[in-house]
C-alpha cells in the first residue's frame, strides 16, 4: 500500500501527518472518486516526485482513465490559473477587467462530473494559495450540492498531502547537504 510507504517515510516528529494521511485516505464524506482525484491533484500540485508516485500508485487504479486524466488536468490548469489570478487579485486595477486570453478548455469539458473537477481545482488552488480561485471553485462546488464538510474534507486532503511533500523535501535536502559535507 503506497500510503503506507509514505507514512513510513514521514519522520517521527511529524507523526500527526502520518495519522492524518492514513485517515484521509479513507475519508467517507466524499465519494471514492472525489477522494482519489483530490489526492492525485494535490500530489501533483505539491511537486514532490515521491509523493506523486506513491499517491498515483495508491489512487490511480481507483480512478477511471478519464477521471485520472481530469485530476491531472485540474492540477495542470490550476498551476497556470492560480499564478495568473493571484496576480490579478493582488495587483487590482484594470487587470480584472481584461480577458485572461489563456486557454482553459478543460474546465468546460473535464471528462468527469463538473463538481468533481471543481473540487479538485479547489484543492489545488488551496495548495497554490490563490484566494480568488479558492473562492470561485468553492462557490461552484457548493452550488453543485457539496456541503461545507465535504469541501473541508477535500482541503484537509490537500493540506496534508502538501505537508507530507514539504516535510520529505526538507528531509531530503538536509540529507543531501549532510552527504555533501561528509
UniProtKB/TrEMBL annotation:
Disulfide feature: 130-133
InterPro entries on file: AhpD, AhpD-like, AhpD_core, CMD-like
BP terms from Gene Ontology: cell redox homeostasis; response to oxidative stress
Entry GO MF terms: disulfide oxidoreductase activity; hydroperoxide reductase activity; peroxiredoxin activity
Active site: 130 (proton donor), 133 (cysteine sulfenic acid (-soh) intermediate)
Reactions mediated catalytically: N(6)-[(R)-dihydrolipoyl]-L-lysyl-[lipoyl-carrier protein] + a hydroperoxide = N(6)-[(R)-lipoyl]-L-lysyl-[lipoyl-carrier protein] + an alcohol + H2O
Function: Antioxidant protein with alkyl hydroperoxidase activity. Required for the reduction of the AhpC active site cysteine residues and for the regeneration of the AhpC enzyme activity.
Protein name as annotated: Alkyl hydroperoxide reductase AhpD
Lineage, highest ranks first: Bacteria, Pseudomonadati, Pseudomonadota, Alphaproteobacteria, Acetobacterales
